[in-house]
Amino acid sequence: MAAPSSCKRLSDLPTPAFVVNRRAFQENCNRVLTVAYANGIHRLRPHVKTHKTKEGCLIQAGLGGAVESGLPTSEVIGFVVSTIPELSMVIGMACQQRGRPFSDVLLGIPICKSKLSAIHKLKSKLASATNGDGRIHILADNPHQVDFLEDFLSSTSSLAGTKWSVFLKVDTGYHRAGTTCDVQGASLAKRIIDSPHLILKGLYSHCGHSYSIDDDVEMKNLASEDQTELFEFMELLADYLAKNGSSFDISTLDISVGSTPSMFAHSGPASMPNNFELHPGNYVLYDRQQLFTGACASEGSIAGFVLARVIGHYRDDRNAIMVDAGATALTKETTPQGDVCAVFGRPELECYRMSQEVTMIRCRARQNGAFPFDEFPLGSTMLLIPNHSCLAAACFVSYHVVDEADSPFGTDAKIVDEWTPVKGWA
User: Fold this and answer.
1) How much is the pLDDT for 43?
2) What distance in Å separates the CA atoms of residue 91 and residue 354, rounded to the nearest whole number?
3) Helices 183-194 and 143-155, packing angle to 10 deg
4) CB atoms near residue 21 (< 10 Å)
5) Per-residue exposure over 181-190, b if at least 16 CB sit within 10 Å of its own CB, e if not
6) What pLDDT is recorded for position 218?
7) 167 contact partners, CB below 8 Å, separation of at least 6
8) Model confidence pTM above 0.85
9) Residues 6+ apart with CB under 8 A from 347
10) Which residues pair with residue 110 across a beta bridge?
11) What contacts 133, CB < 8 A, 6 or more positions away?
């Protein structure tokens, strides 16, 4: 529900509501661009799934008032999306902006047959707007995906002679999606290379096993192992292709790595500065999970919050308050630190219990005395930090934007904009 025009400050909003601090969002994007460049990574392909907005894409691309640092930055060469509506949003921006980075988009989940017609329509729209210069890439990790891609492309008359660009998803240790980095993976890569309907554009890995790490040295080692696994697979692939009569040049492949926890731990290989890219996503908003990993240095870098209102005082053995944001606004995602969320700027408070529409908050066990009820009167508002901002943001149809340099800031912050995320899956 959009906020009434009378809502000038966060405290005026109906709750729960999702809040974005644009200043922190901009600073987070700028830091990733500068640190990646300093680490030898000159190409960034940010993920949009966290925010799902045009305004967020512009800031990620350095076109939305990003904070200037005076330092050299990586180039945003394209985007990653997770859904067809996200893909449609970015392609729409490509049609308006007439060029990169919006005209180079990877659908970053393994491809399924039901999405092919929608992708075909968007590819046609992009080609028309960019005179054929745009690219939509898809992700594959199974031979059956090649089968249905070839069936679709060979049976659609308007696609005669065209080739679709494919990134091969490889598993470097997370063990979620991705083909194995062995002969099985090499065989699938060759199958794509040999297809008259497909082009093997690159290799894609997600360093998702970094989310459980909170040590800088361990994170650096994991990022190094992730890249080593990829480069060793490339050597195996080159040998496999040569033995099977293929002249394909693997040095042309783009290599896409990373995750938000590991993004500052990756280093660009000197041998391939022009086709090595990083693809973080959560960094724009951050959350309690990223406070744990250390990717987010402090609460001051958090850019996504849930605004909640105090609706209950319990001055008995509960010694707690209740707010009107629960699992339907924050989700029940967990983090290694525990707690269901956190009160922004109040580390002494514990968000200890959540149900569908409410959360209970009390003093931590180490705190003595009664809860400070007078600081949180009935009807007052507070900002909650989600455990996982991607999931919390997805609970809302609009984001209320502030532009605050100080941290923590209060709910008297002025609303300066409203962003509308794309929703759904088709």
Assistant:
1) 96
2) 39
3) 10
4) 25
5) beeebbebbb
6) 97
7) 106, 137, 138, 139, 140, 201, 202, 203, 204, 254, 256
8) yes
9) none
10) 139
11) 99, 103
